[in-house]
Design goal:
Blueprint lengths: L1 E2 L2 H14 L1 H4 L3 E4 L2 E4 L7 E5 L19 E3 L5 H14 L3 E4 L9 H9 L3 E5 L17 H14 L5 E8 L11 H17 L5 E7 L3 H11 L15 E5 L9 H4 L1 H6 L6 E7 L11 H5 L10 E4 L5 E2 L4 E2 L2 E3 L6 E3 L1 H12 L38 H9 L3 E3 L7 H17 L9 E2 L4 E2 L7 H15 L13 E3 L7 H11 L38 E3 L25
Parallel strand pairs: 4-6, 4-12, 6-7, 7-8, 8-9, 9-10, 10-11, 11-12
Antiparallel strand pairs: 1-16, 2-3, 5-21, 13-14, 15-16, 17-20, 18-19
Helix pairs in contact: 1-3, 1-4, 3-4, 5-6, 13-14
């Protein structure tokens, strides 16, 4: 065990800034299934997960011990400066950040890492309400806006390697229909990146699983539903959270199977997490296999989990501990063992970029008993259409509490139950990734979905003001159409352009993207250490199980 002083970290930062941004980092692009730097060399991810763990509440519904809050690891310049010499000792060229807050300043951390030649892989989702609900997945305006606002903030930095549109959204064969929403997210994020001339890759990180549905998942995310060899709806980078190598294992025992599974994969792939803890101490000998000529034809490196301490259902992860005052880093044998393995790794610089071949996007896998995802994707969420709809709804959700995310789900279930008892339906707000059918309002923010079903019930009961109350959480919109016919006409007009795909745009009021220029280093993230500890963003409102009652019979009024 050894500890550092602030002086050592300060010297490392000074050296990093003297190197200059452009000299330290190169653009990384994908050619076929491989990654290359601007000078034509093969690029392998030698990474580490870099995210302090937020609050974890153990429960029957949280078997993975996923946090409910997060600490933005790229918003505290002092902490990044402190950690830089250790990341350099590890020999990493990439870090993975699982949750970031787009309202904070990331200039200090991002430039510190850029100057040191360290890329970032940024997950776009947030804990809880900021990610796709595995049990009731959807792709909605609020989640799309969260994603592109984050991209917008990070677009000015030259060391963003990739954005992940999801992490372990699909975790079982009976939940594979959720992949349709992940693929739609990849499609829309890629379209937005292209519109701002960003070369960042679009990725997804998958749980390791049975090949009967893991293989179709990987192939589905990189396929072309149109059958025209287009990559418009395909990811660029498939990540596998793989913990098969435990202790001092071997390639044949731990990796031969997954190597064969992905032998013919069409886009770049890497281990988005690795580092088994069930057979301590962690020797990290899998690095020698992963970054070898034996695995380099398929894999482009990996991300070791985790730099910071992290509790899990399997046990305790972590390579360092941080002193209570945040000033000192103490390393463990996990750290020194990984340092040695990364230093010894020497993956081959092949194939050459010219020999990598052109990208190809095969047809998508067909549905079967273990693969449920439709090849018909949900549309690009249209914020303007949803806002137009909201303005024309007869009964609007006006919550009586500031913590409205806690009541939207139960109110939706209650409203849909009332509509069902009246012989109606909530199908307009439901999404079905197996049948490929998506209700006309299913792309809207859940608060707008709630206003929609509240209005449905209000009109069905003869525009009785009490029917709009919902416990004091609804208000009659005096400017809205009063009859079902007029309401349906207005809603249909609003949503007429809300089908199909389009290039997403930033919500009104968001700053314009800065492009992919070098970061200036003019800002500082050091003042945000307290502010960077945040709850799941209320703007997203996902993950609430809001569509439990959405499959009830035929409707009172239907949006075409």
């Amino acid at each position: 065990m050894r500890a550092s002083s602030r002086f050592v970290a300060g010297l490392a930062l000074a050296g990093a800034f003297l190197t200059g941004v452009d000299a330290a980092i190169q653009t990384v692009t994908r050619n076929g299934r491989y990654l290359y730097t601007a000078d034509g060399n093969r690029f392998y991810i030698k990474g580490v997960a870099y995210q302090e763990q937020g609050a974890v509440v153990a429960s029957a519904s949280n078997t993975f011990l996923e946090p409910s809050t997060f600490i933005d690891p790229l918003a505290n310049g002092t902490a990044c400066t402190r950690d830089l010499p250790y990341l350099q000792q590890l020999g990493v060229n990439a870090i993975r950040a699982y949750s970031v807050n787009s309202s904070l300043n990331h200039d200090s951390c991002m430039q510190t890492f850029s100057n040191a030649g360290i890329y970032t892989i940024i997950d776009l989702s947030l804990p809880g309400n900021g990610s796709m609900d595995r049990d009731a997945p959807s792709w909605t305006t609020n989640l799309l806006d969260l994603y592109i606002e984050t991209i917008n903030v990070f677009s000015k930095y030259n060391n963003v390697l990739a954005y992940n549109v999801g992490n372990e959204v699909v975790i079982a064969a009976n939940g594979t229909a959720a992949a349709t929403f992940v693929k739609a997210a990849a499609r829309d994020v890629k379209a937005y990146l292209n519109s701002i001339n960003s070369g960042a890759l679009v990725g997804y990180a998958s749980i390791d699983a049975d090949a009967t549905w893991l293989d179709p998942l990987a192939n589905y995310l990189s396929c072309d539903p149109s059958g025209s060899n287009s990559g418009a709806a395909a990811i660029d980078l498939f990540g596998l959270n793989n913990y098969e190598w435990c202790g001092n294992s071997t390639f044949e025992a731990s990796y031969a199977g997954v190597e064969g599974q992905f032998a013919g994969y069409n886009v770049a792939a890497y281990f988005s997490e690795f580092g088994c803890i069930t057979s301590p101490p962690r020797l990290w000998t899998e690095v020698g296999a992963l970054l070898s000529s034996e695995m380099s034809p398929v894999w482009s490196g990996g991300v070791a989990f985790s730099y910071f301490p992290a509790a899990s259902a399997q046990g305790q992860f972590g390579m360092v501990t941080i002193s209570p005052d945040g000033s000192t880093v103490t390393t463990s044998s996990d750290f020194t063992n990984l340092q040695s393995q990364y230093a010894a790794a020497s993956p081959p610089n092949s194939p050459s970029q010219s020999a990598a071949g052109a990208a190809s996007y095969p047809s998508c896998p067909q549905q079967n008993s273990t693969w449920l995802a439709s090849n018909t994707l949900p549309p690009t969420p249209n914020l303007a259409a949803c806002q137009c709809l909201e303005n024309n709804l007869s009964c609007q959700f006006t919550p009586s509490t500031s913590n409205y995310t806690a009541i939207v789900g139960s109110l939706l279930d209650y409203a849909c139950t009332l509509i069902g008892q009246s012989g109606g339906s909530c199908s307009a707000i439901s999404s079905n990734g197996t049948t490929g059918q998506y209700g006309a309002v299913s792309e809207c923010d859940p608060t707008i979905m709630l206003s929609y079903v509240m209005s449905d019930y209000y009109i069905a009961t003869g525009a009785n003001a009490q029917s709009c109350s919902f416990g004091g959480n609804g208000t009659v919109n005096s400017k809205a159409p009063s009859s079902a016919t007029a309401a349906n006409s207005a809603a249909s007009s609003c949503l007429a352009s809300a089908s199909g795909t389009s290039v997403p745009t930033l919500p009104a009021g968001a700053p314009s993207p800065s492009g992919s220029s070098s970061s200036s280093g003019g800002g500082s993230g050091s003042s945000h250490s307290a502010a960077s500890i945040v709850f799941a963003d209320a703007r997203t409102l996902m993950g609430m199980g809001v569509l439990v009652a959405a499959g009830i019979a035929s409707g009172l009024w239907t949006i075409a």
